[in-house]
Each structure stands twice: as C-alpha cells, then as structure tokens.
Design goal:
single chain; Rossmann fold; binds uridine-5'-diphosphate; 7-stranded parallel β-sheet; globular; alpha/beta; 38% helix
C-alpha cells in the first residue's frame, strides 16, 4: 500500500485520481486551497479510513507529515476564464507550487507526476501534436499565464530529474470532461451541457470551426495512473484523438440532452487555439493505454450526473 499525495485533490481530475488510488488500496492525502476545487467533490470520501484532506496553498507549504511514496501535482486553475481571472496565482502555482511539490517528492524519494497540458503546444502549427513538437506559444499573450507556467513546470521537473535523479513523470492532459466538471467552470463542455439542460442558447465562441479532442475523465485518469505506475520519464500525451469542431459538439450535446437550444455566437477569446488533437502513439506504445469511452456515451454520463446533482439541490 502506497501513500499518495494529490495536490489539487478537490479539483475535477484530482478528485477522480483520489478515487482510483483509494479503490486499489492506497492511502491518499488530498491537498487543496479550494480556490477552484470543491470539498463537494470529495464528500463521498469523508469517512474513508485511508483518505485525508489538507487545506493548504501549495505555494506556501505542503504540510504533509510522515512517509510519502508518490506526489501528483494537479493544483492549478485549468479553465481559461478562471486562470485569466487570477493570472499571478496561476503563474505561482505552476512555478513556486511545482517547486514545493518536487521538494516533497525529493525529500521522500517518492515518484513524482506533473499535470502538464496540451496548452504547452499553444496554437499548434503541427497537427496532430506529438510529444516531440515544441509548441507555438506567445509568452506575452494573456493565455501564456497558464501555458508558460506549465512549460516552466515541465522544465523544473526535467531539471530535478537531471540534477537529483528524481523519478518524475509528465502527463500532457488534453481537454477532459465528465462528472465533477463544475457547472460554472467555464469550459465548453460544461457550458454547453448546462445551457442545453436549461433550454438556454449555446454560446459558441468565434465561428465554431475551431477543433478540440475530448477525453472522458475515466479514460484520462486511467492513463495518468498507468503513467505514474510506469518508469516512463518523457512527457506523454493522454487524450482522445477524436477531433471535432465546436459546432459539431453543439450537435452531440443537443442529441444527448434532447435539447433544441439555439446557438448564439460570441467573440473568440484572444489566443484561442484553432485546432488540437493528440498523437497518442507514445501512450499506446509505452503504457498500452487507449481511450474507450465515446463522446455521446461520456456526455450521457455527464448529463445524468448534472441531473442527479440538481435533484439533490447542488450546483
Ligand atoms: N468555447 C465555446 N463556448 C463556450 C466555451 C468555450 O465555443 O461557452 C470554445 C473556446 O473558445 C475554445 C473551445 O470551446 O475554442 C474549448 O474551450 P475550453 O475553454 O473548454 O478549453 P481550451 O480552450 O482550454 O481548450
């Protein structure tokens, strides 16, 4: 039984990671300052004997006593409107916060895993994106507070590996959706799903011709845990290569929710990438990982979750 620290443990992906480690018999300490994460996402674990929650800002300290076998650093706002609202905190958590998380792993001789992102590819000129592509990010653009912070976090992680032989992994997470993506998160899937359920217009930014590739959270987390368990140190894309335009996403959301909501077009955010699709050859080859949940099936599970939350009066 390993003792695992998940920073950002009350966040969307972080809370699912806590579930997976606990389910296989590990002990889990979730650390979060609750800036974008919610205790509600961990409420089902409150009585679990192998689970504990520490409220802390990882930029200040990660106050976890005792042995640690693994550190997964997931603390950071991840939704564009949310990280743009707290640009300095976003830069801090992936720089200072990553340093603290790496130091915790180093002090314990623990496996480290950094949550990086497809955003490090910026607005990619190479398509699909394989890990060998170095990306196209404008360091002075507003979005760079997330993109460059994650790029810096990758550099820090690689440096700890080189300097100290720290067993460190880097996952590049592509757009992920599923239960526990907060209705007010601001990302496209939660926006469209809630708008459709409420019979409100779906807000398409720009022409809707831009693409993304959406991965269901169970697939994503299975890939992350496989990477954590492996000895792989090079960055690995974990995402679903099924690429669609935002207008195509509108159709799938309408279908799954039975909604006939109209579409309203709103301005495209500055620096919004035009396309994104992971090349997952490395994950397939090194981890034997493959996503299995189709978009309509994943969205149906998300719809059921939102409706269930509503029934319980939760938002
Ligand atoms: N988007 C949209 N309507 C929304 C929210 C987002 O059309 O209500 C677009 C956004 O401009 C982007 C895509 O959907 O092109 C994915 O946005 P999201 O914020 O989910 O993730 P990211 O841009 O980080 O991939």
């Amino acid at each position: 039984m390993a003792r695992i620290v998940v920073t950002g443990g009350s966040g969307f992906v972080g809370s699912h990671l806590c579930d997976v480690f606990l389910a296989r018999g590990d002990e889990v300490v979730a650390v979060d300052n609750l800036s974008t994460g919610r205790l509600q996402s961990l409420a089902h674990l409150a009585e679990h004997p192998a689970f504990s929650f520490v409220r802390a800002d990882v930029c200040e300290a990660i106050p976890v006593e005792g042995r640690v076998d693994g550190v997964l650093h997931f603390a950071s706002p991840a939704s564009p409107p949310e990280y743009l609202a707290v640009p300095l905190e976003t830069l801090d958590v992936s720089s200072i916060g990553t340093r603290r998380a790496l130091d915790l792993a180093l002090a314990n001789d623990a496996r480290f895993l950094l949550a990086s992102t497809s955003e490090i590819y910026g607005d990619p000129v190479v398509h699909p994106q394989s890990e060998s592509y170095n990306g196209n990010v404008d360091p002075g653009a507003p979005r760079a507070v997330y993109d460059e912070a994650k790029r810096f976090a990758e550099t820090l992680t690689a440096t700890y590996r080189r300097l100290y032989d720290l067993p460190a992994a880097i996952v590049r997470i592509f757009n992920t959706y599923g239960p526990r993506l907060r209705p007010a998160d601001g990302r496209v899937v939660s926006n469209f799903m809630i708008q459709a359920i409420d019979g409100k217009p779906l807000t398409v930014y720009g022409s809707g011709g831009q693409t993304r590739s959406f991965c269901y959270v169970d697939d994503e987390v299975r890939g992350i845990v496989a990477l954590f368990d492996s000895g792989v140190s090079d960055p690995v894309n974990i995402g679903n290569p099924n690429e669609i335009t935002m207008l195509e996403l509108v159709d799938v959301v309408r279908e799954v929710t039975g909604s006939s909501s109209e579409v309203v077009f709103e301005p495209l955010p500055v620096g919004d990438p035009t396309r994104r699709r992971p090349d997952i050859t490395r994950a397939r080859t090194l981890l034997g990982w493959e996503p299995t949940v189709t978009l309509p099936n994943g969205l149906a599970r998300m719809r059921d979750w939102y409706l269930e939350e509503r029934r319980h009066g939760r938002e």
